[in-house]
Amino acid sequence: MSSLLSAIQSPADLRRLSRAQLHPLADELRAFLLESVARTGGHLSSNLGTVELTVALHYVFNTPEDRLVWDVGHQTYPHKILTGRRDRMHSLRQQGGISGFPRRDESEYDTFGTAHSSTSISAALGMALAAKIKGENRNAVAIIGDGAMTAGMAFEALNNAGVADGRLLVVLNDNDMSISPPVGALNRYLAQLMSGQFYTAAKNVGKQVLRNAPPLFELAKRLEEHAKGMVVPATLFEKFGFNYIGPIDGHDLDSLIPTLENIRHLLDTDSGPQFLHVVTRKGQGYKLAEADPVAYHGPGKFDPAVGLTAPATPPRTTFTQVFGQWLCDMAAADPRLVGITPAMREGSGMVEFERRFPARYFDVGIAEQHAVTFAAGLACEGLKPVVAIYSTFLQRAYDQLIHDVALQNLPVVFALDRAGLVGADGATHAGAYDIAFLRCIPNMAVACPADEAECRQLLSTAFEQEHPVAVRYPRGAGVGAVPPSGLKGLAYGRGEWTRQGRGVAILAFGTLLHPALAAAKSMGVSVANMRWVKPLDLELLRELARSHQALVTVEEGCIQGGAGSAVLEALQQEGLVLPVLQLGLPDEFIEHGDPARLLAMVGLDAAGIERSVRERFASLLDTPTDLKAVA
Length: 631
Description:
By secondary structure, the protein is an alpha/beta fold. It folds into three domains: about 5-290, 3-Layer(aba) Sandwich (Rossmann fold), CATH 3.40.50.970; about 320-470, Thiamin diphosphate (ThDP)-binding fold, Pyr/PP domains (Rossmann fold); about 495-630, Rossmann fold. The strands form three sheets. A seven-stranded mixed β-sheet has the order 7-6-8-9-11-10-15, with helices on both faces. The chain has a five-stranded parallel β-sheet with strand order 1-2-3-5-4, sandwiched between helices. Strand 6, helix 16 and strand 7 form a beta-alpha-beta unit. The longest helix is centred in the N-terminal third of the chain and has 19 residues, at about 20-40. The protein is globular.
């Protein structure tokens, strides 16, 4: 460990360094970051791009008394390293280790838990106004990326902040553009001048002098706005009520430090909300990541000297890839199909679709609410929209799902990726609630494919319907079932009795069919692949209930209101009374870790399913009840 970074146990240590020492510290921090992420995997490009900005913010502001709120939070590894977690970076995103995102229960420097986009300005404004109410002299700083600024929530917060009287700084971390010629020595001077005391004092004096001559005052005000607008894109944010400063080079500490110091003075003197525009580069300092920031956005383990390499054994086809291929095939067969993503082209498997059908591909930015209502508008005009969205992000568009799509019974297909547990990203990204919040909506159908082949087939079935349908599938690969080449779907609303046994029947929803089959084989019980949560296959359910003494439902989703609840409701409505054991995700947030281990931890692997069934229905089984055999 190099001398400077090893001496930093908290930002207080950082603030004891001289200005000249910050440059080598930033170099050490970037080198440590690269080496650390290469060993654990995680977000890389975004973190390499925020090294200097993180150093500068902690150097200028009195953290944690001054609050830093990081939007999304996948760029906070430098922040974690400088705030006492350097020695725990080896445990990043692993079970029992530190999170890949800010968490309030992990550090006092993580002032707000994040992982979903565009929440920072709202949270920081709340903190700023809370300080005012409590009579505390502290600042709140929101650091938000240009991608996150595409969400409506960010603009709602700006609109509120501009008229609220809080000590708030919004830092726009713009990493989607190259640093243009104006961002240099001249621009650094302009940024410091506009944030400095001389500029502010001169502007205020001018206003006081000219206020007695309204025509001249209005003319001067307009001239100032237009002159400033010619050198910086200030107009939009100043119309929200912010004092706009920038853009400045976010990797230039000699620009960042004095500008932030001037802004801190403005905040200390209650000069209103401030807006700093910094330009950074994803992957900064690591040439391979600079050249391909998308590939290095969230890599697994790799050798930094070599970079990312293709695995020796080709990986199995993922559910996301199955969806991407189906989307292209269906688009070729049906010109009505249009594909929509809220800024997740790569994650949702739509790269090839954009290449082949650019006129029918729509990336609407990080705007899930808009994505759903936009799809509704397309459907109103006879098109067949497919919204590719992570389960956890569909939560952000729930009103639009009900009011704009389901209420009007529009034929929109929702391809819900990352259903169930997602592993290293943890509770913020787990798709634990989609079954519960979708099945209660009239006109909505919900399908749960058990493997890759069924995923393609059920997507086709969903596309054939004239009402909204969601198809949920997990992250990664399944059991390796090869999808058929055609576009023929499976029967709508029908499941399948997969294994015949006695006594107990396991009703499996989704990919947990396979561990359920493994558990059933040891116990001699039946298994049904239900496929659909809504509409539930009532004919199959009646047959299973009348031929067995107990039922077990298995789903990779929350138990409360989930597929098991749907089965209980249907049994009650049919007047069928028998014991039912519901297995699913418990009523708690599941932390980050290896997905297989997490499933085992909550009893949803084959051994866990068998153990639960034996404990509840031992008297109904033909096999011995020695739990050691399945532990």
